[in-house]
Write a structure and sequence with these properties.
Elements (H helix, E strand, L loop, with lengths): L6 E8 L7 H17 L4 E3 L23 H13 L1 E2 L3 H13 L2 E9 L6 E8 L5 E5 L22 E3 L2 E5 L8 H8 L5 E5 L5 H14 L2 E5 L2 E3 L10 H5 L4 E10 L5 E7 L3 E8 L2 H4 L24
Parallel strand pairs: 1-2, 2-4, 3-4, 8-9, 9-10
Antiparallel strand pairs: 1-14, 4-5, 5-6, 7-8, 10-12, 11-12, 12-13
Helix pairs in contact: 1-3
């Protein structure tokens, strides 16, 4: 591993998106980036699909072999609220990251610039004004009726002063080979934008931090029933949801699998922490999953990265 800065000041944003409202979500994102930067954050991390929000519980009129026109209208509304990578909103976010000299990781619904497909994506903006996008390899469950499988941007890595940083979105972390693809790139910080507020997820993230000997950044969000627009066609579906649809639980796990910051539930907050970046290397003394604790003569992973 190459030399890295000893400390990374991170800001982990747990916040509530304004569902289906691209501009309001963008404005809130910009405000939170500025707030985190005022607290000297160097790396600022947002949840999955923060723009324009994760529509938990909705089905957009899909059923086996059937669709509804009302559901199509809701889907088109979500489509119009999604972002083009490199579009006007991206340029605004990139300019702010550059002006504040910060790295920003942000989950967003991505509109393909050519086809009509949406992707569940995550972008990392860099202080030089550039960015890298990761598209979710396999949307989970009925997410597949809204977002397509990634067709590029599988495992991009951002080189930072703290080592390589990468992301897997939500249940991508249950794809063992995808995790190894990141380990093979030497990541020191593993960013997980997600909507997993279930207790089993906490065991998962501790395991991955130990397995990869990296910091696991568990970036979850709040979603309330009141987050949904009142004029959606799927009113009955939304009305059946609990008042608190997603409780959060954002936290940071160190490379030993310990909580550096405890999970935060049921409130908006920015979690600040100083990451000791000597740990990812030090922890590999007795276990390096892609180094001395690997058997490449017996087991190999071939990654078709693009």
């Amino acid at each position: 591993m190459r030399d890295v800065n000893n400390t990374c000041k991170i800001a982990l944003v747990q916040a509530e998106p304004l569902l289906f409202d691209k501009q309001a979500c963008l404005d809130k994102t910009l405000k939170l980036i500025r707030e985190a930067a005022e607290h000297n954050a160097e790396l600022i991390v947002f949840p999955e699909l923060f723009i324009p929000g994760y529509p938990i519980g909705m089905n957009f009129g899909f059923s086996m072999g059937k669709r509804t026109e009302a559901g199509r209208q809701d889907w088109m509304r979500y489509y119009n609220a999604s972002l083009l990578a490199g579009g006007e909103e991206f340029q605004t976010l990139a300019a702010l990251s550059k002006s504040l000299s910060v790295y920003v990781s942000l989950g967003f619904s991505e509109r393909d610039e050519i086809s009509g497909t949406l992707y569940n994506s995550n972008v990392i903006f860099e202080p030089d004004g550039s960015w890298k996008v990761h598209r979710k390899l396999k949307p989970t469950g009925s997410e597949r009726v809204v977002w397509g499988d990634a067709n590029k941007d599988y495992f991009p890595i951002t080189e930072t002063p703290w080592g390589p940083v990468g992301s897997l979105i939500c249940w991508e972390s249950y794809m063992p080979l995808a995790r190894v693809a990141l380990y093979q790139k030497g990541i020191t910080i593993y960013i997980s934008p997600n909507t997993n507020d279930n207790p089993e997820w906490q065991a998962t993230i501790q395991h991955i931090a130990i397995e990869g000997k990296c910091y696991f950044i568990n970036a979850d969000m709040l979603v309330r029933k009141s987050s949904y627009p009142v004029d959606l066609n799927e009113k009955e579906v939304v009305n059946r949801l609990p008042d608190m649809v997603c409780r959060g639980g954002s936290c940071i796990i160190d490379p030993y699998g310990h909580y550096l910051t405890e999970p935060v539930w049921d409130k908006e907050t920015i979690i600040y922490a100083d990451l000791d970046m000597t740990l990812p290397a030090a922890c590999k003394m007795e276990h390096d999953a892609v180094g001395h604790y690997a058997r490449p003569d017996v087991l190999k992973l071939i990654v078709e990265d693009k």
